[in-house]
Design goal:
The chain is of the alpha/beta class and 334 residues long. It has 2 domains: 206 residues, FAD/NAD(P)-binding domain (3-Layer(bba) Sandwich); 120 residues, FAD/NAD(P)-binding domain. The chain is built from 7 helices and 23 strands.
Length: 334
């Protein structure tokens, strides 16, 4: 059985940063993730997507952020069990936990930190009757490699940050880029909305609001999308790719059966230390919920920092916690 101080479920950015904060307190970490590599959604779904809200980086690709986090935690030598799903937890006689994965790996720890992002997830698909016929034949729900769209005609549908950010990014890559949104207003960051509007005004983005893609056409490969507009009616637009970015549908999977307080597929936590209703289990990042919650990587980093302070006190109730600054001592001093 693997022994560790903090068992982290989820090797996404928040899980990885937890290793760093725990390492400063001399706490060992082991991470479990159902994906075959560390990085979570950043690696699996959009490694080439630029991220704009990481302090100190005006822009950084998701995959590069993961690489930086892996470099940052390397001195603390965390353990990884990848490609295995966290299935079952048991509380042992010494009040610690034993977790068993989908492949039978057993891990023991006094503290569990759930950093599973959205949990198990799948993309939300628009209600287009024949969309399945064009999956991987011109229809993609996730942009992994933007080079696929170089010098191609692309139609993106959606009104959130992903749709806006990829429209901005692909404006310099694609031959022609269109953004279709069913409303006039957008849900994404105001700065991104302004950039899209500027690109549309400059003729570099074809912006269609109060509109929806209602049909797909092609013979074995996508050639056209049918767009229904509120005022102009229906039009057929030629395209090489249709990318509906309507977000992900979260599913907690086995975590939902662990006796945790759940609200709309998210784990309720106490914001004092991001602890759950089960003593010894914490939840950080997109998988948790509380009043005022913002699903940002930055917020998950903050939650991880606070959480490990509480974890230390649970693991070493008789030790005095001395907080230090890495700017003074450096990582090697820890």
């Amino acid at each position: 059985m693997i022994q560790t101080d903090i068992l982290i479920i989820g090797a996404g950015p928040c899980g990885l940063f937890t290793v760093f904060e725990a390492g400063l307190l001399k706490l060992r970490c082991h991470l479990v993730d159902s994906l075959p590599q560390a990085g979570g959604q950043l690696t699996e779904i959009y490694p080439k997507k630029p991220i704009y809200d990481i302090p100190g980086f005006p822009s950084i690709l998701a995959g590069d952020l993961v690489d930086n986090l892996m470099e940052q935690i390397a001195p603390f030598k965390p353990g990884f069990t990848l490609g295995e799903r966290a299935e079952k937890i048991e509380r042992l006689e010494d009040d610690s936990f034993k977790l068993t994965t989908s492949k039978g790996t057993e891990i023991n720890a006094p503290v569990i930190a759930i950093a599973g992002g959205l949990g198990c997830f799948e993309p939300r698909k628009p209600p287009i009757s024949n969309i399945v016929d064009f999956e991987d034949k011109g229809v993609e729900y996730i942009i992994k490699d933007p080079e696929l769209y170089r010098d191609k005609r692309v139609v993106i549908a959606g009104g959130g940050d992903s749709a806006l950010d990829w429209t901005i990014f692909l404006a310099d890559v694609a031959k022609e880029i269109s953004l279709v949104h069913r409303r006039k207003s957008f849900r994404g960051a105001l700065d991104s909305v302004e950039k899209v509007m500027e690109l549309a005004h400059a003729g570099r983005v074809n912006l269609l609001t109060d509109a929806q893609v209602t049909g797909l056409q092609g013979n074995g490969k996508l050639t056209d999308v049918v767009i229904k507009q509120k005022e102009q009616g229906e039009l057929i637009q030629s395209t090489d790719h249709f990318v509906p970015l309507f977000g992900l549908s979260p599913k907690l999977g086995p975590i939902g059966e662990w006796g945790l307080a759940i609200d709309r597929s998210a784990i309720e936590v106490d914001t004092v230390d991001y602890s759950t209703n089960v003593e010894g289990i914490y939840a950080i990042g997109d998988i948790n919920t509380y009043e005022g919650k913002l699903k940002l990587i930055l917020c998950g980093f903050h939650e991880a920092t606070i959480m490990v302070q509480s974890a230390f006190k649970r693991i070493y109730p008789d030790k005095k916690l001395s907080f230090k600054y890495t700017t003074v001592n450096g990582v090697e001093a820890f």
